[in-house]
Amino acid sequence: MDKNKEYPKSFSHIGITVPDLEKAVEFYSEVMGWYVIMKPSKIKKEKETAIGIMCIDVFGDDWEEFEIAHMSTSDGIGVELFSFPHGVKEAPEFNPFNTGLFHFCIQDPNIEDLVAKIVEYGGKQRMPIREYYPKDKPYKMCYVEDPFGIVFEVYTHSYELTYSSGAYTG
């Protein structure tokens, strides 16, 4: 038996770049119910603070300032929103076939109401709501976009339940 087996790491947060930080915080708090844990604030490029140095390490020297806000889902997953004044303000073309982050997924048992609210707040429904296992399990999913063109998915049930055999019987 391998005594050095790795344990599953937990998911901490995801960083999303948006063109309008205030509008993004409003969308994700109003539609998703995510908590604002740090209101939108400006970060300036400087070498006098730990955050300034850290941001230079991450972004390099080709920036002067950006805005950031921190949010949290009900299960404690962080959502770090960024807005850069000189960044491209349109979402990249949807191309799931290329290497890179394809989407993230959130969970809500009331998928119909959530998808309708996403659309009401300027997002887009990319497909009909579909059942994963028609007649076997009541699990549904749908791909959507936020108002900025960022693609994400909605599940009605947890990832583990959706893909495990015998997780739902009847």
UniProtKB/TrEMBL annotation:
GO MF annotation terms: lyase activity; metal ion binding; methylmalonyl-CoA epimerase activity
InterPro entries: Glyas_Bleomycin-R_OHBP_Dase, Glyas_Fos-R_dOase_dom, Lactoylglutathione_lyase, MMCE/EMCE_epimerase, VOC_core
GO biological process entries: L-methylmalonyl-CoA metabolic process
Residue span, VOC domain: 10-157
Gene3D superfamilies recorded: 2,3-Dihydroxybiphenyl 1,2-Dioxygenase, domain 1
One Pfam family it belongs to: Glyoxalase
Domain of life: Bacteria
CDD domains referenced in this protein's UniProt entry, alphabetically: VOC_ShValD_like (cd16361)
Keywords for this protein: Lyase, Metal-binding
Protein name per Swiss-Prot or TrEMBL: Lactoylglutathione lyase family protein
